[in-house]
Specification:
The structure is a single chain. The chain is about 80% helix and about 0% strand. By secondary structure, it is an all-alpha fold. The protein folds into two domains: about 15-195, MFS general substrate transporter like domains (Growth Hormone, Chain: A, Up-down Bundle); about 215-405, Up-down Bundle (Growth Hormone, Chain: A).
Length: about 400
């Protein structure tokens, strides 16, 4: 194993056969989600001609996260992880297959969309917890999480493009049918390419919401959860308002695409650099500085910048997302093993839900204020909120130092 100042690098993570299986399954499942979202949105619009229902189809990808992440979080620890992952993929494949049926009404399509979104946090949280079993709780786990985030950002960029091209060749139902195959392929990979492990907490409490909120009784875990949740609440603002901002400054549609891609590209670059060039100790030391300055680039919007300068601001903001590597190490060290699946499911559900809230809040604010003012306000308010959470994280580190110390991975 590498020393405390060394980093094994991403190559060492790919050297673990079981991780390679999880990685490919993740890619297939993610592409299935992205392409099915696009195809279903187009299908609903074709059937109804309603822009509201079409946009509602996309929004429903966020809303059930909260419900699924709270009510179903205990599933991640109560049953063997491989079984949970395979069943989630099969549920998604079944829902998508029903979407393909011509007899399925629009209301049924929306319900099926909610069902896919409801199981997503359970799948993601279970997979995150399983990574600690496959890679250990040290630096390999952090790098494995980083790789899955990188492929998620890349798949979002590529998936929308692939989905758009696919819809020029096949009808929406045909594209949805293809995604059913990707879910089934992911299920097969996970079933036969990963080891069986017993449930983390075979006698886990069956208390629904009570058991889920029980995770948050730990002050340290609660503070770290907030550090995962609060930045996305504000950082989605410029992306959510990219189209109105491009219109505000008279930019072209191509320029809008540049704005939409800038932050994900910065996030990928920041994670790749931190994961390959920095040691575990350094990654943990830069968590607070990076998260503290992450939204300050939004202040450039005060001068109503052109597309190039706005893209630079978003690129820089995205690059500071590298703080999540060190934060992952703190989180896995703070959560007891028997609660790991539940905690990670809740954390994932919260992140997705909070992004939906942030997008809605940004749109509401932009109804009354110029877009550039809203983005600047998000940068200022977001920084203040993050600093308050950082203070709480520091307080728990000092108070509970014997139990919740920050490790070097």
């Amino acid at each position: 194993m590498p020393g405390p100042t060394a980093t094994p690098g991403y190559r060492a993570v790919f050297a673990v056969r079981e991780f390679r299986t999880v990685f490919v399954a993740h890619l297939l499942s993610l592409l299935g989600v992205v392409v099915s979202e696009i195809a279903l949105t187009v299908l609903v619009y074709d059937l109804t001609g309603s822009p509201l229902l079409s946009s509602l189809t996309f929004a429903l990808g966020f809303l059930p996260y909260l419900l699924g992440g709270t009510l179903l979080a205990g599933v991640a620890d109560r049953y063997p992880a491989r079984r949970v992952l395979v069943v989630c993929d099969l549920v998604c494949a079944g829902c998508v297959a029903l979407m393909v049926a011509p007899v399925t009404p629009v209301a049924g399509l929306l319900v099926l969309r909610c069902a896919v979104a409801a199981v997503a946090p359970v799948f993601n949280g279970t997979r995150m917890a399983t990574l600690a079993d496959i890679l250990g709780e040290g630096d390999l786990f952090v790098l494995g999480r980083s790789l899955l985030r990188i492929v998620s950002q890349s798949a979002l960029l590529a998936g929308f493009g692939v989905g758009g091209v696919l819809l020029t060749v096949v009808p929406p139902r045909g594209a949805i049918a293809i995604t059913a195959v990707t879910f089934l392929a992911s299920a097969l990979l996970l079933r036969f390419g990963t080891a069986h492990r017993p449930a983390r907490a075979a006698t886990a409490e069956r208390q629904g919401l009570g058991g889920t909120w029980g995770v948050l009784r730990d002050r340290r875990i609660r503070a770290l959860m907030l550090l995962f949740w609060i930045p996305p609440l504000f950082i989605v603002t410029p992306e959510a308002l990219a189209a109105p901002y491009a219109r505000e400054i008279g930019a072209s549609t191509a320029a809008l695409g540049l704005l939409m891609c800038a932050m994900p590209v910065g996030t990928i670059a920041g994670e790749l650099f931190a994961g390959s060039a920095l040691s575990a100790r350094v990654r943990e030391r830069i968590v607070v500085p990076l998260v503290a300055v992450g939204m300050l680039p939004f202040l450039l919007y005060a001068v109503e910048p052109g597309i190039a300068l706005a893209a630079v601001a978003l690129l820089l903001a995205g690059a500071t997302g590298a703080y999540t590597l060190g934060l992952d190490a703190w989180f896995v060290a703070a959560v007891p093993e028997e609660q790991r699946g539940r905690a990670m499911t809740l954390m994932t559900a919260g992140m997705m839900t909070i992004q939906g809230v942030g997008m809605a809040g940004a749109g509401l604010a932009a109804e009354f204020l110029p877009v550039h003012v809203v983005v600047v306000g998000a940068g200022v308010l977001g920084t203040v909120c993050v600093l308050a959470v950082v203070a709480e994280v520091r307080a728990t580190e000092v108070r509970d130092g014997a139990d919740h110390h920050v490790t070097s991975g």
